């Protein structure tokens, strides 16, 4: 099986696993709640919620989300 690239990992992760629990797992309770609520806000007005939300994160937060996605979906297991 071919290894998923970073974009595939991210998309699989957001579709299959992203939740408030995941957000708090990655960022801790307070920041996790804030980041998850930002994602929910995008639901109201953005056509491509995940990409728009990801683009609004700072580099550190983007890297944390991507690392978690790769941890779960990179097919390295």
Number of helices, counting only DSSP H or I runs of 4 residues or more: 5
Portion in strands: under 5%
Shape assignment:
globular
Average predicted confidence as pLDDT = 93
Parts with pLDDT < 50 across at least 5 consecutive residues? none
Q: For the terminal residues, how far apart are their CA atoms?
A: 11 Å
The arrangement of helices and strands along the chain is: HHHHH
The tally of domains stands at 1
Number of strands: 0
Mind telling me the C-alpha Rg?
A: 12 Å
Q: State the share of residues found in helices, binned by percent.
A: over 70%
By secondary-structure content and strand pairing, the structural class works out as mainly alpha
The largest sheet is:
none
Q: What keyword list fits this structure?
A:
about 80 residues; mainly alpha; 5 helices
Q: What does it look like?
A:
With 77 residues, the chain is mainly α. Helices cover 77% and strands 0% of the residues. It has one domain. The protein contains five helices and no strands.
